[in-house]
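Notebook entry, cofactor series.
This is the third protein in the set we're modelling with a bound small molecule. For this one the ligand is magnesium ion. I'm keeping the input format identical across the series so the outputs can be compared line by line later. Sequence and SMILES below, as received.
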Amino acid sequence: MSILEIKDVKSGYGKSTILHNVCLHVLVGECVAVLGPNGAGKTTLLRTITNIISPSAGEILFKGNSIVKTRFFRLSRMGICHVLENRHNFPDMSVEENLMLAASRTTSKQREAELFEYCMNLFPKLAERKNQRAGTMSGGEQQMLALAKGLMTDPEILLLDEPSTGLAHILKEQIFEAIKEIVNSGKTVLVVEQDAVAALDIADRVYVMEQGEIVTEGTPDMLAKDSQLVRAYFGIS
Ligand SMILES: Nc1ncnc2c1ncn2[C@@H]1O[C@H](COP(=O)(O)OP(=O)(O)O)[C@@H](O)[C@H]1O
Ligand SMILES: [Mg+2]
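Returned structure with ligand:
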């Protein structure tokens, strides 16, 4: 069953249309990656799904119901968690305070404690630093915190905007290992990325976006055999 369906969506800023008739879907439990270069429209796609900007045409369905008019905070309560591209942690609050604040959707103290425990196991670095002010942490730790905050909302689907951007290789690997574990635990993930290697490694299916259009879709195996794509995204001729 599709948890998220995007049908012929057009969206943009003011008079400029950025997304042109984008169609994609995400099945329950899948990890779907949208791969594309800088400026392709990946962030715009996630902003359109969570109604930070409204589509000018098309339909977006969450579990079969239209969400095009549903506001961001309501979507978050419905179980759609959008982890924004710039990590948006509260710098003067501790790691633990950031996480507890994010847990507002959770209905019981017990569930909150379970989620906190899960995040501490998933990111031992955050456990070590739970009393540290978020603003004093490295880029990789901030990204871990942003992901953990997303998990604390107990989402049904996580939308991740370039979780690896600006991170050293080793940290990138840690972040993607964590995303794999999140998917293996049964969560549904839609991740947008520039990093083709990472995206093909974690995704069940991949869409390639260029200039606001989906130009290719398939499994990582299929796409890795596409010589034009390999040239474009892996720099191999
Ligand atoms: N707030 C904005 N106002 C106007 N144009 C924007 C805004 N944000 C992004 N754009 C434009 O939309 C296009 C797609 O950007 P974006 O969705 O951020 O791409 P990506 O995330 O794939 O790098 C770019 O041409 C960018 O300049
Ligand atoms: Mg972006």
